[in-house]
Design goal:
The complex is a heterodimer. By secondary structure, chain A is of the alpha+beta class. Chain A has three helices and nine strands; from the N terminus they run H-H-H-E-E-E-E-E-E-E-E-E. In chain A, strands 1-2-6-7-9 form a five-stranded mixed β-sheet, with no helix packed on it. In chain A, strand 6 and strand 7 form a beta hairpin. Chain B is mainly α. The chains are: A alpha+beta, B mainly alpha.
Chain lengths: ~230, ~190
């Protein structure tokens, strides 16, 4: 069996062994589920992404989100035009004394910039779509996108960080499938990461979620302290 | 009624069409799940999860002709999730499947020792690696079809298959060396 030539044949033959008939129970449960969850008319179904569409991450993965953003942009643009025209009207002032060149210039308001937040749409390993809010207090985050859990993922209860490149980390964790909103907080200088997730109830089957974080400078997985907080 | 019509009707809420669909697909899906998981109870759980997801998500399958590829994707995801969950929970009790019949084994699989060696080597692979091997060597999918089913680039599918094969060969060779060492000591 150890010969090179027949390895594929032996593997194929071995895989042919084993059951080929499915037990009745899963079918019965699925049919019962269908009967107890009759399909309702989904008026916004056309906005939902195709389950076999190529994987995309970010806002483009969600047509409804894109439409909302476009709507907000249009409202913002209309608002800006209206405010601009109002200012044009106010700018017609009666002639008066020329302002003194020594008049104090307006003091710039402090920037209200806080931690940046990115929303990442991901699909867990059983196909459910969910999203993660990434709140970056480090100022080093250059991007975030959905990722495959690393093959070495052991699936313990914590966050697992793996460097794909010196400046790229794949972050994986387990979660219950009903928890569709997780929050990942990146601490100062990217020295810590805290995941907030919903607590699982009952015997919900855990799923694995993963995102890829790209930083503007190298961040070593081993140098990041991680924590997971279960919301109640 | 052909599969496309069944998919069409099930997606609009026809439970009878859904039942016909799952009865037609279950054997194929269960066989895949069992071969990835090597455990009939875990395979049963993966199948159940997949069938429920089919009902819930079917309206979002735009191209009805891709039902088979989509269900392959679902069963692989459910199986790898089960495998990961199992790793977290410790080793399960392994039982031989009811209809496993060694007398039907093809000639290439010559001895019980070969089977045991493959079983041990296969279990050492990651769930993703097992999945690509099963899709190619059991389901008979091409590399392009595997990439489509898994939703990954074809290059990634190729490299995953390469590493899976290499890892399995390495596990088998290690196993063979270990057995030879024990024989010499005996």
């Amino acid at each position: 069996m150890n010969g090179t030539n027949d390895f594929v044949g032996v593997l194929g033959a071995w895989l042919e062994e084993g059951p080929t008939r499915a037990p009745e129970r899963p079918m019965e449960i699925a049919v019962e589920h269908a009967r107890s969850h009759p399909r309702r008319r989904d008026r916004f179904g056309f906005l939902r992404p195709d389950v076999m569409a190529p994987r995309r991450s970010g806002p483009l993965a969600r047509p409804a989100l894109v439409l909302t953003l476009v709507g907000l942009l249009v409202i913002g643009a209309v608002g800006a035009v209206l405010v601009g025209s109002l200012r044009d009207d106010q700018s017609v002032v009666p002639p008066g004394p020329t302002p003194s060149p020594t008049a104090p210039s307006p003091t710039p308001l402090p920037s209200p910039s806080g931690p940046a937040t990115l929303a990442v749409t991901i699909r867990d390993d059983v196909g459910n779509e969910t999203f993660v809010s990434v709140v970056d207090a480090s100022g080093l985050l250059a991007g975030a996108e959905a990722a495959e859990p690393s093959e070495a993922f052991e699936g313990d209860e914590g966050l697992e960080l793996v460097n794909e490149t010196p400046a790229t980390l794949v972050v994986s964790w387990v979660n219950c499938p009903t928890d569709t909103g997780n929050r990942l907080l990146i601490g100062v200088a990217a020295k810590s990461m805290t995941l907030e997730r919903g607590a699982c109830a009952g015997d919900a089957m855990a799923v694995v979620k993963a995102i890829r974080l790209t930083f503007s400078q190298p961040v070593a997985a081993g140098s990041v302290e991680t924590a997971v907080v279960d919301r109640r | 009624m052909n599969q496309r019509e069944l998919v069409e009707r099930a997606s609009t809420g026809d439970e009878t069409a859904f039942e016909a669909l799952v009865r037609a697909a279950s054997n194929r899906l269960y066989a895949i799940a069992y071969r990835i998981l090597r455990d009939q109870y875990l395979a049963e759980d993966a199948l159940q999860q997949t069938l429920v997801t089919i009902w819930n998500e079917l309206p979002r399958l735009r191209d009805r002709d891709r039902f088979d590829a989509w269900t392959y994707r679902l069963i692989v995801r459910a199986s790898t999730a089960e495998a990961r969950r199992e790793r977290r929970g410790g080793s399960p009790i392994r039982l031989l499947p009811d209809d496993a019949d060694a007398s039907r084994a093809p000639d290439e699989l010559r001895t019980v020792a070969d089977r045991d060696q493959l079983e041990r080597g296969f279990r050492k692979l990651t769930p993703d690696q097992r999945a690509v091997l099963v899709l190619q060597h059991f389901a008979g999918l091409s590399l392009a079809e595997i990439a489509d089913v898994l939703g990954i680039p074809i290059g990634t599918a190729g490299s995953r298959l390469h590493y899976a094969t290499r890892s399995l060969r390495a596990a088998l060779e290690t196993d063979a060396r270990s057995a030879a060492g024990k024989e010499r000591l005996a």
